[in-house]
Amino acid sequence: MGPKEEILRHLQAGRNLSPHTVRAYGGDLERFARFIGGETGLLGPGASILNVRRYLTQLHSENYQKSSMARTLACLRTFYDYFLRNGVIGSNPVRPVRTPRLDKKLPKFLEEIAINGLALGDASVNLRLRRRGANTEVAIVSRTGDIAIKITQ
């Protein structure tokens, strides 16, 4: 079993991560391994801070989102921390690399017409919001007329 399979098995069984996270980490490791010359290079001299920074530069030039680059760095940190704890390597080349600052997104809001429609009991308001692509959840409108609105992002 190679280092990639070993860490993915550890993440799935030992750390109980989501299958989606494990799959994403597998892809991140695969791409980084290709960048440094194959899976055997993951634990070799090709795994240097310089190559990690070059890899991030390549991802940036390929228009990767900052969140994808941050996940890739988290994946690589986890990978190298695991093999550092097990005594396979002497240092983690990713530890000194700073995570890119993520963009802050403005929250979505309900328009006044939607709030009025909810207050009047218009059931089609929620459907119109969903058709518009607004990522909103409208909570319970109680029988007493009180309105509770929960907006999720």
Description:
This protein has helices at 3-14, 19-35, 49-61, 66-85, 112-119, 124-132. It has 153 residues and is an all-alpha fold. The longest helix has 20 residues, at 66-85. The chain is elongated.
Amount of beta strand:
under 5%
Low-pLDDT stretches = 133-147, 149-153
- Can you write the helix and strand succession as a string? HHHHHH
Rg estimate, integer Å: 23 Å
Biggest β-sheet strands, sense, barrel: none
- What would the principal axes of the Cα set say about the shape? elongated
Summarize this entry quickly:
The protein is 52% helix and 0% strand. It is mainly alpha-helical.
List keywords for this structure.
elongated, 6 helices, mainly alpha, 0% strand, disordered C terminus, 153 residues
